[in-house]
Amino acid sequence: MGVIAVSVYIEVLTFYARQMRLLDALDVEGYANTFTEDGVTDHAHRGEKIEGRAAMIAGAKHALPRYAGVAVRHWNDHYLVDEVDENTLNVTYCSLVTRTDAEGAVTFEPTFFIEDVLVRVDGELLTRSRTIHRDGQAKQVAQAS
Amino acid sequence: MGVIAVSVYIEVLTFYARQMRLLDALDVEGYANTFTEDGVTDHAHRGEKIEGRAAMIAGAKHALPRYAGVAVRHWNDHYLVDEVDENTLNVTYCSLVTRTDAEGAVTFEPTFFIEDVLVRVDGELLTRSRTIHRDGQAKQVAQAS
Amino acid sequence: MGVIAVSVYIEVLTFYARQMRLLDALDVEGYANTFTEDGVTDHAHRGEKIEGRAAMIAGAKHALPRYAGVAVRHWNDHYLVDEVDENTLNVTYCSLVTRTDAEGAVTFEPTFFIEDVLVRVDGELLTRSRTIHRDGQAKQVAQAS
User: Which domain of life is it from (chains A, B, C) (predicted)?
Assistant: First the structure.
């Protein structure tokens, strides 16, 4: 893994700050627009692969009622950024997910390890693929393969 | 939102590392000194606005007994930094707050979304205003307005 | 504390991203190899000091059964990086530790404050010493001494 430019590292952190806020605001279309048109989300831990923005939006809207009345937040850490080529980045990180209810009580979803491929299109980063591994399963995925 | 210099981004992260440690050490004066003399903290979720360092110190000392015997920690994520002018930055981020007791047991305060205005005075960043939104309320504030 | 180069700051974040993943993967040898041969871990809160990679590996293997069936994750925040000399860095940060079980339920270890000395050997960062303070004890260590 080579040394990436510091400007790329900050660009990546800022990309995730924006994308996670759209996700946590349950802004389904806004979140889908941070993926490429053919972007893929692979929930590896439950064998569910969603391909393309349209399918992503449909799936997310289906899941929305689950989050009625709670504020979801994703807390990411330990980003590793690997430059595949000038406009393609492999990014891996861990994610802790909280749910805060109307009284302010916080509960937790499982923790996750995520492998993303980001591409820069017209100067802007987008997620081309996201593979999500749930922690605590038989075969722990603590690092990128 | 333009692209900020990487040095400014690191300056901001380092500012928060220092400020949060003062806050979590319950160093009321030290924390107040990371604000401008007329600095404002607006607890938007409970309609409480504290103006100026003196009021901030008085209010914090009043709240201290609440934290007797527990170690508070703020865990921030998803910083977005927007340069208003050379010495003024709008910064937004999320905050998870833990309380660790003498036995090491961890409990949680609600999660928050925060909007800060930082100013650089004599080469040093200070908070001019802080607006705190509690998560889980009727109108979720997941992003800056 | 002077201003460190942004490239050093990113180098440090990337070092911890790798080291924490090895730790959380329970890769005892891989983790020990991120320390110098004579690296020291001082669990200040329980008066236990482990010196050298060999002792670190033996101690960690002894502790492994405690983590059978759970996925451990360290979530760090508020890094402060101080350059002692060209190849020596003092780094301090806070750490939140989760345990996720097979059902995905998350529980918490205490929170910690950590003081590291990193050295750059043949262009690569290694931990020369790590002092770990548990939060919530009589004398709170919220900042570096």
Answer: Bacteria
Amino acid A138: pLDDT: 63
Contacts of C101 in chain A (CB under 8 A): 136
| Exposure on the CB side of residue C144, measured as CA atoms within 13 A | 17
| Average pLDDT over every residue of A74-86 | 97
Task: For chain C, positions 9-38, list CB contacts with chain B under 8 A.
Answer: 9
Which of A16, A79, A93, A135 has the most C C-beta neighbours within 10 Å, making it the best mutation to test the interface with C?
A: A135
3-state secondary structure string across C74-141:
EEEEEEEEEEEECCEEEEEEEEEEEEEECCCCEEECCCEEEEEEEEEECCEEEEEEEEEEECCCCCCC
Could you report the predicted ipTM of this complex, rounded to two decimals?
A: 0.92
B136 inside 8 A of chain A by CB: yes
Give me the domains of chain C, ranges plus CATH numbers: 6-134 (3.10.450.50)
For residue A140, the model assigns a pLDDT of 55
CB < 8 Å to C34, chain A: none
Please count the other Cβ atoms lying within 10 Å of the Cβ belonging to residue A126.
Answer: 18
At residue A18, the pLDDT reads 98
Of A10, A18, A104, the CB nearest to B6: A10
